[in-house]
Input
Amino acid sequence: MALTALLVSPDLKAVEVFRRILKDLGISVEHCEDVPTAVTKLAQSCFEALIVDCQDQAYAGATFAAVQKSPHNKGAMVIAIVDNDSNVRDIFARGANFVLYRPISAERAKTSLRAARALMRRERRRHSRQAVHAQATIDCANIENASVILTDLSEEGTAIQCERRLPPSCKVYFQFSLPGQVTTIRLAGEVVWQDSTGRVGIRFAGVPQASRRVLNDWLKNSINRGAESATPTLSELPAAPAGFGLLPVSAADRRIQTRHACRLSADVYRLGVNVPNRCSLSDISTGGCYVETTAPFPAGTPVEIVVRTTEIKVVVRGAVQAMHRGFGMGVHFNMKTANERDNVQTLIALLAESESSEPGVVTEPWRG
Output
């Protein structure tokens, strides 16, 4: 099935550039000049990508809100078109996966859309995810009866919020009850990805028949409820407030497409210190990465990260956002140039394409 994108922009010159690029990438595109039409399309159809012109901040906010309300498009890749003076950090926080800056450069746009396409193919799910907030207990490796929170759920797997970092690819045993249900679901799964904020993606590996029945019934009812309230009326669209005008997005609704599991060697420097710390990156996104090291730096430490592969060298600066003693640290990127952003997005595209062509493959770092 072909990938499809919804492009929401009144800028016809930019629309023509995107049409050519998306066609070259094998992505079909539908174009809307106004938000009401986009809201209707989001309620009726499923898209793998949403490209939103954020020049009109209130209308951009309404489009982002419509994505969150659509049961078909909550997992869509969101790409924002912004001006250089836009609050990009806020746009990422509200749900964007990539940003493209005006004036639109065909070369830079193609780099970003190539990365987005690779992630769309990798993250496309056969079953939709439903937001949920439920307590669960897990057992795995040396962890027993640990309390976690389910943040989304599908027939194939779940995302959880966990205070402890889990061993990679380990087997996990769950017990939980879903909202409105009294039956306890017991099943097994395996860790697929985890990020620096404590979110973990689990793929179900063993679900008893009784638990499968309860799980499927709950998901079916949740999807039906979502479909009934999926189409907001024009009166429900937010008024034009000061600022960006986006509706708040809970941590449970933050998209995992921005995180890409990897295993890359990296040299990490404290700014001003020329001694490299040899570390590994375990996940990366356009906004940051997780650095595995037994000696992480304190939160707030400015750092420079150098990654070399056979195809590209990436140098990016950032600051430590979270430090987990003995495990590693989460780093937020502070990218000031288009070249830095392009290099990070190209690295993500290379990782995603490697994983799409051969599951489980790891891009081998260049050693020189």
In short: The domain at 3-127 is CATH 3.40.50.2300 (Rossmann fold).
